[in-house]
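Hi C.,

You asked whether I'd gotten around to modeling the 221-residue construct. I have! Everything is below, sequence then structure, no commentary in between.
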Amino acid sequence: MGLLPMTSLQDQLDEITSNTRRLVQAERLAISERSVEELFASGIEEKILPVGAQAPEFALKDANGKLVRSADLLALGPLIVKFFRGRWCSYCSTELETWRDLYPRVRENGAVMVAVSPQTARQNDFMAGQHGLPFPLLHDAGNKVAAQFGLAYSVTPEMQSYYRSILVNLPFINGDDSWTLPLPATYVIGRDGRVLFAEAHSDFRVRPEPEEVLAAAFGAQ
């Protein structure tokens, strides 16, 4: 009997979307849909740091307060960087759990990985424990590093009200009042600091398949 094919990451995320549409009122869903459309219309996807660019160096603290430097990681191998919104985002949690299961392959093939979000170190610590994440979760205060990658955007007043209504208190979660978030994004940075893979979507429900990312990372050896 053959092995059953693994469910793709996007299939898992589409299941979350289907469940949400069954459970949430249409007028509330419309607010989120409108936000996605406005973000896409802003052209932000066209402005992200592209393949071939030199990636900015960064130094961010992990969940334990230890400073993690991209230069130190790149000395070990190609670096996969996942920018995510926060532990409150079920799409982000599902994506990072998928990468948790793939992490042994990442390390066996000589690559390294971090996940970056604006949420505080305390939130990162909760998330790492809750989801068993073995790679560093880094706190990007005010989305400063995300901005260098072209990913940071301001949450509209309408979406601020929406988030508050579903008890997503971003100032508390992120530890500042900026009301900024990163586009969920995936980067692979070669040991020379060049971007080998770059993908980000205005629609937070869409993420790249890990196999595409791994191909870029493992091909960089």
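If it helps when you're writing up: The chain has one domain: 10-218.

Thanks,
B.
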